[in-house]
Amino acid sequence: MHDVTSVELGIDVLGMNKKLADDNRNLLDRHNIKAIDVMGSIGSGKTLLVEKIVDILKSRGIKCAAIAGDVSGEDDYNRYKSHGIPVENINTGKDCHLNAHSIEHTFQKMALDDIDVLFIENVGNLVCPADFPLGTHKRIVVISVTEGDDMVRKHPIIFGLSDVIVINKIDLSEVVEVDPKVITADAQKLAPHTKVILTDAKHGDGIEDLITSLEL
Amino acid sequence: MHDVTSVELGIDVLGMNKKLADDNRNLLDRHNIKAIDVMGSIGSGKTLLVEKIVDILKSRGIKCAAIAGDVSGEDDYNRYKSHGIPVENINTGKDCHLNAHSIEHTFQKMALDDIDVLFIENVGNLVCPADFPLGTHKRIVVISVTEGDDMVRKHPIIFGLSDVIVINKIDLSEVVEVDPKVITADAQKLAPHTKVILTDAKHGDGIEDLITSLEL
């Protein structure tokens, strides 16, 4: 019964989300903001990656902002805040993804003319965010080698629609005995159009490659 | 709009799931099966923990079985299969959780009289499975220290309703600079009734404690 209602409901919800996402995209374009939807599992390193990118872009005079999406809490919000950029927090409660409607509301609280690049960190998992585009220019998925080498095989939908796949924490590859080459091969087979970037956010490796791949 | 429809829909779906979960529980009890719902994020080590428990229980003459839940693929199914136990695979497609209805169908394919302990590995994330009890006797959440120390604070619902919280991969605590004591303290504050077990599934540490906490 859950399956049936999901499907019946899905058509309208996804269609309405798509329309609102298009509205968001138009608004972003009018304000010359480039927006990135940062998806990926809990603990994959999404927040730290964005923090590292923000520090570099700031040093180049690019004005960054962030929206932190989580089920609950202000942990990520406070981390972004400490970098001196405008941040908004969205707590989804029971929803396992952001949606275009919540982003539209959040835009109303932000000084959009003062932003060049906006990072939207989605709720941490590899399933729900896939169906709900937010109107961003790029969508990326972050995975950590500590999650194992089967992430892409297990989640073809989210990886298939991403512009960039980031394999993070590669400094831990040996200790967890996971070869990033296996994940890269799976990704290139599933989504040949998608760029795969290897990073070690903790030590700052690969961040420049990621910035280049995002055309920031 | 998504929020409203979710809420309106939620009442019936969750109520119907609860009723089916009760039916599942009655069926399990009639067959003297103890069932464990194994929740937790992708890559937290759910499969390996169950594999280690199964090996120990098998050596004690306890008949185990498993249901592997994933969005896509047969990776976990094949891992369980290699231990010589009955396994069923559930691919949820786009659903980020198992539900009682899918479990009820799966039971019809299993020789329930030949099972003492059944492990049901839920889809990997810390949000969706919380709302959908399956009728198991225990629900556990597995997290890995590699996910960071803020997992419990960020996901109060799933941790609040769990019988056992497993903090896995503690052998990596130092290298990822995450102190299991912080996670344990958060868990004990949020859910004082819940047992917290530290494990290193890869090297077999803490598995006996986990078996004891599950009363297997």
Brief overview, please?
Chain A has a single domain (2-213), classed as P-loop containing nucleotide triphosphate hydrolases (Rossmann fold), CATH 3.40.50.300. Chain A has nine helices and seven strands. Chain A has helices at residues 2-30, 46-59, 75-81, 100-107, 151-154, 156-160, 173-176, 180-190, 207-213, and strands spanning 34-40, 64-70, 87-91, 117-121, 138-144, 164-168, 195-198.
Walk me through the structure.
The structure is a homodimer of 216-residue chains. Chain A has 216 residues and is an alpha/beta fold. Chain A has a single domain, classed as Rossmann fold, CATH 3.40.50. The first copy, chain A, contains nine helices and seven strands. Chain A has helices at residues 2-30, 46-59, 75-81, 100-107, 151-154, 156-160, 173-176, 180-190, 207-213, and strands at residues 34-40, 64-70, 87-91, 117-121, 138-144, 164-168, 195-198. In chain A, strands 3-2-4-1-5-6-7 form a seven-stranded parallel β-sheet, sandwiched between helices. In chain A, strand 2 (64-70), helix 3 and strand 3 form a beta-alpha-beta unit. In chain A, helix 1 (2-30) packs parallel to helix 4 (100-107). The radius of gyration of chain A is 17 Å and the shape is globular. The model of chain A is unreliable at 1-8 (pLDDT under 50). Chains A and B meet through helix 1 and helix 5 of A and helix 1 and helix 5 of B.
Assembly classification:
homodimer
What name goes with the CATH superfamily of chain A? P-loop containing nucleotide triphosphate hydrolases
Largest sheet of chain A: 7 strands, parallel
User: In DSSP terms, counting alpha (H) and pi (I) runs of 4 or more, how many helices of chain A?
Assistant: 9
SS-derived structural category of chain A: alpha/beta
* Percentage beta strand of chain A: 15-25%
Distance between the termini of chain A: 45 Å
Shape of chain A: globular
CATH topology category name of chain A: Rossmann fold
Strand order of the largest sheet of chain A: 3-2-4-1-5-6-7
Number of strands of chain A: 7
Q: Tell me the Rg of chain A in angstroms.
A: 17 Å
Overall number of domains of chain A: 1
The residue-averaged pLDDT of chain A reads 93
CATH class of chain A: Alpha Beta
Determine the most extensive contact between two protein chains. Answer: A-B, 46 and 47 residues
So, CATH architecture of chain A? 3-Layer(aba) Sandwich
